[in-house]
Amino acid sequence: MSFSNLHRNDYTAKMAGQQFDLLVIGGGITGCGIAIDAALRGMSVALIEKNDFASGTSSRSTKLIHGGLRYLKQFEIKLVHDVGSERAVVHRNARHIVIPEKMLLPIVEEGSLGSFSTSIGLMVYDILAGVKKDERRKMLNKHETLKAEPLLRSEGLHGGGLYFEYRTDDSRLVIELAKGAFAKGATLLNYAECKSFVYNDKKQITGASVLDKITNQTFDIKANAVVNACGPWVDLLRKEDNSLKGKRLQLTKGVHLVFPYEKLPLQQAAYFDVGDGRMIFAIPRNNITYVGTTDTIYSQDLNTPHCTKEDATYLLNAINKMFPTVGLGMGDIVSTWAGLRPLIFEEGKSASELSRKDEILVSPSGLLSIAGGKLTGYRLMAEKIVDLVAKQSGKKYKSCRTKSYRLSGGEFHDETAFEKAHEKLIAEGGQENIPAVKINEWFYRYGTNTAHIIEQVKTLRPKIADPEKLFEAAELLYSIENEMVYYLNDFLIRRTGKIFFDRMNAEKQIDYLSNFLAVQFKTEEAASQSDASLAKQEFNSAVAFA
């Protein structure tokens, strides 16, 4: 059986019909990381997500697997070591979606880092993160820095440092984890909301009552252990459990702006000092360049964080100051995204000063909640909490297996195998008149699973004459059959990121893709039109500043 909402009834029946070793609530990077870790150890696992997988923070990050260079300034030595070391692990296990990215750190007159402190900081960073020799830092003088990025402001520029980070697609990473967990026997369901907890007569948690938001049916899931991995919603579940005592979350909001590449044509990614204690990334990616992030305390609706005029103005000012010839304005923004960081509250600390360390909170009922942390450290977070679940169970499970587990689409032994697979898929695509640029797009999204999309092209070609529509339909069909897509926004936002990175082309395809999706699920016309309308609303809200 494939990982598809076409089999949804089978999944709900399984969830309602057995006793699981572990129930995970939350389908972001942490929840799906926990699910795959537990499944690889031999646990029976159920995971529910009230919206789509990665629909919260895990699709709204800066999309970097990075070591947190700025945390050196806060003396978070262990955090830098842990997440820095993890970069290489995540890259090795998902080469198709975790790509080495050279990063330029300009050293400017009014910045918080001087040439000497930057050199020492980057050297320490390389040591803590275990950076391989060919990716270690290189210090540049002013001339070399301007040659690396001519758009930089010359006035007050002293030089720069070059170092490596890893660019990723955060929501793709989540989906590949979910697919891996499913392949190892876990049962995962999106659009399934925990409405309340179930307890035994000793007031110990034994499961959850769940609403299937697609069928509007409710059912109970029984489990020996329950983990709350809901990110920004962690405290809401703790409150439902009557255990919101002691430590609590402090949410901060991070915003990113997207520009056409020709408006901000950076030769390479940059990480620069704004002057107020914050650092900002500017990252070219295919036909766009995106910039972020902000860091402000957030206390509004958890479901709809958005970019305000104030957020956009802050980032525009920072960009225009560092790259003065580009002259960007509000009208140049083609898309935005805003996400929430679920950090642990610390009295007297500003948003940017709050620690990114993760923490496990144990309730009297036995509910295990995990909060804090970074995208890069998801695997270590998962290992820590699954170790605890295994210990509390008293059963003998396998040790953690995720350090060497290749994710779906990324089953490569080394870089040579990766390149050979890429070349082979380009050749196979050429035989089907699929342009190499399209194969590249798919390969860096699906890896070896691109072969399945090529097969879908062969199947659909007799029915769809227009090549552009054919390729879109083939990709959507793969996602329906293998990645739990149910609504069009699942595909446009979280499976492909088209709303952010290919907005113009994606917007043109909304009605066509909505109709195609409706045929697969035998959806009534009114529901299909509603789905298309929701997709258009998302596109509009991405550039509607309050």
Give your account of this protein's structure:
With 546 residues, this protein is α/β, with parallel strands linked by helices. Helix content is 39%, strand content 22%. The protein has helices at 8-17, 29-40, 77-93, 115-129, 142-148, 170-183, 234-240, 309-322, 378-393, 415-431, 436-446, 450-460, 467-482, 488-495, 498-501, 503-508, 510-521, 525-541; strands at 19-20, 22-25, 45-49, 64-65, 98-108, 138-141, 157-168, 187-190, 192-199, 205-212, 217-223, 226-228, 249-260, 269-273, 279-285, 288-292, 296-297, 335-344, 359-362, 368-371. The strands form 3 sheets. Strands 4, 5, 6, 7, 13, 14, 15, 16, 17 and 18 form a 10-stranded mixed sheet that branches. Strands 8-3-2-12-20-19 form a 6-stranded mixed sheet, with helices on both faces. A hairpin with a 5-residue loop joins strand 9 and strand 10 (205-212). Helix 2 packs parallel to helix 6 and helix 13 (467-482) packs across helix 17.
Share of β-strand residues: 15-25%
C-alpha geometry: globular
- Residues in helix, %: 25-40%
Number of helices: 18
- Main sheet, how many strands, which sense, barrel? 10 strands, mixed
Structural class: alpha/beta
Oligomer: single chain
